[in-house]
Amino acid sequence: MSDKQRKILVTGGAGFVGSHLCGNLLKKNHKVICMDNYYTGSEKNISQFLNNENFEFIEHNIIEPFDLKVDQIYNLACPASPPHYQKDPIYTLKTSIWGVLNVLEVARRNGAKMLQASTSEVYGDPNISPQLESYRGNVNTMGPRACYDEGKRVAETLCYEYNKRFDVPVKVVRIFNTYGPQMDPEDGRVVSNFIIQALRNQPITVYGDGQQTRAFCYVSDLVEGFIRFMETGPEIIGPINLGNPSEMTVKQLAELVIKITNSSSSVEYLSLPVDDPLQRCPDISLAKKILSWNPEVSLLDGLRETIAFFATQLSSK
Ligand code: UDP
């Protein structure tokens, strides 16, 4: 990567992934404008950057038009965990459609590159595994996940069309399950829920029989993939999967978290949410080839870091 200082907008920069991205870009000495409306993001995620002269925060909802002169945009603004994106499905759709249009307009007007945070949810409940980028998905337009899945699918299409019509250099990354410090304890995600429950010695809530699979990527690996993708030439638009292909069942994750935390928690089986994908695992051959990217943090190391983060959070309460 070149050392040239760039002016970079991170929408959703006060969120879990966004704040890690801001930190990484600041370390590389870029000027970072973090935009967030704190719908799911939080001020405490960015408090450590507020005294950095290269960091600026703008409180704004991307659903409303805006303009900024920047070189690059990472568009991460969108509620991403099922309980959050299902709270107000129309708002989630507006964020993925109106919001992405507004961000693409900023990129078009200012000649900026734009990386769109898409998702493995575009594959829906996949009937092939692992999922390759060429797989077109098995998505329900009507279910509780539709506002997110279909919104993100439209968002991708908007990116490809802005690239075709206006030559906006877009980069579409499909993010698979990601975890790490600064996850919101209220997010309702499997990793955060299990760790908090285990640390409190409360029952671990496994939905369904726990045989559904996921593959968990540590946040620093994901962010490294974003930056590598952003630095590619304009001909590379994606989509590119980013995730850790070590697939496991939710039940195995529960057992592992209990073991590492030395918890006395038992496992409690609750009903499986509607349309919960039964399997999910990225095929990352494309990311390996184009970005020379490979996740480096093992699940054990990543979980240890994440557990330490939540332990501090719980003890400071
Ligand atoms: N899950 C679970 N218990 C929880 C939270 C989630 O068993 O307390 C399951 C959920 O049903 C799904 C998987 O864990 O099968 C991953 O859920 P998460 O919400 O983290 O992400 P998703 O991949 O579904 O977007």
TrEMBL record:
<dbReference type="InterPro" id="IPR036291">
    <property type="entry name" value="NAD(P)-bd_dom_sf"/>
</dbReference>
<keyword id="KW-0735">Signal-anchor</keyword>
<dbReference type="GO" id="GO:0070403">
    <property type="term" value="F:NAD+ binding"/>
</dbReference>
<dbReference type="GO" id="GO:0042732">
    <property type="term" value="P:D-xylose metabolic process"/>
</dbReference>
<dbReference type="GO" id="GO:0005737">
    <property type="term" value="C:cytoplasm"/>
</dbReference>
<dbReference type="GO" id="GO:0048040">
    <property type="term" value="F:UDP-glucuronate decarboxylase activity"/>
</dbReference>
<keyword id="KW-0325">Glycoprotein</keyword>
<keyword id="KW-1133">Transmembrane helix</keyword>
<dbReference type="GO" id="GO:0033320">
    <property type="term" value="P:UDP-D-xylose biosynthetic process"/>
</dbReference>
<keyword id="KW-0472">Membrane</keyword>
<keyword id="KW-0520">NAD</keyword>
<dbReference type="InterPro" id="IPR044516">
    <property type="entry name" value="UXS-like"/>
</dbReference>
<dbReference type="Pfam" id="PF01370">
    <property type="entry name" value="Epimerase"/>
</dbReference>
<keyword id="KW-0333">Golgi apparatus</keyword>
<keyword id="KW-0812">Transmembrane</keyword>
<feature type="domain" description="NAD-dependent epimerase/dehydratase">
    <location>
        <begin position="8"/>
        <end position="233"/>
    </location>
</feature>
<dbReference type="InterPro" id="IPR001509">
    <property type="entry name" value="Epimerase_deHydtase"/>
</dbReference>
<keyword id="KW-0210">Decarboxylase</keyword>
<protein>
    <submittedName>
        <fullName>UDP-glucuronate decarboxylase</fullName>
        <ecNumber>4.1.1.35</ecNumber>
    </submittedName>
</protein>
<keyword id="KW-0456">Lyase</keyword>
